[in-house]
């Protein structure tokens, strides 16, 4: 089995990491303490394609594979696990309902 990342996956991982560090890390503890959902940041994640990663492009998704999804999730969750859960629920449950 080949575990080498593609150039696209490397770029995706960097994009997710950069986004998390710039947009999620500031205020993460305060948001968790006060149970605040980062709505604007979640909308930005949608614009980056992180909220429908495995949805086909013909349905306005990112059309990515499972490995790409895992790489992005890892970077988001390393900085803000709560937002990572929102991303996961949207990708794994909500989007999957429509794909089935």
Automatic annotation (TrEMBL):
Domain Acyl-CoA dehydrogenase/oxidase N-terminal: 6-97
Pfam families referenced in this protein's UniProt entry, alphabetically: Acyl-CoA_dh_N
Keyword terms: FAD, Flavoprotein, Oxidoreductase
Gene Ontology MF terms: acyl-CoA dehydrogenase activity; flavin adenine dinucleotide binding
Organism of provenance: marine metagenome
Name under which the protein is recorded: Acyl-CoA dehydrogenase/oxidase N-terminal domain-containing protein
Family the UniProt entry places it in: Belongs to the acyl-CoA dehydrogenase family.
Cofactor: FAD
């Amino acid at each position: 089995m080949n575990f080498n990342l593609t150039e696209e996956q490397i770029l995706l991982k960097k994009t997710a990491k950069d986004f998390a560090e710039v947009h999620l890390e500031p205020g993460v503890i305060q948001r968790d303490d006060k149970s605040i959902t980062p709505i604007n940041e979640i909308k930005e994640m949608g614009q980056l394609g992180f909220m429908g990663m495995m949805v086909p492009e013909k349905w306005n998704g990112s059309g990515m594979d499972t490995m790409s999804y895992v790489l992005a999730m890892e970077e988001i969750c390393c900085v803000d696990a709560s937002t990572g859960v929102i991303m996961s629920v949207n990708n794994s449950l909500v989007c999957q309902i429509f794909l089935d």
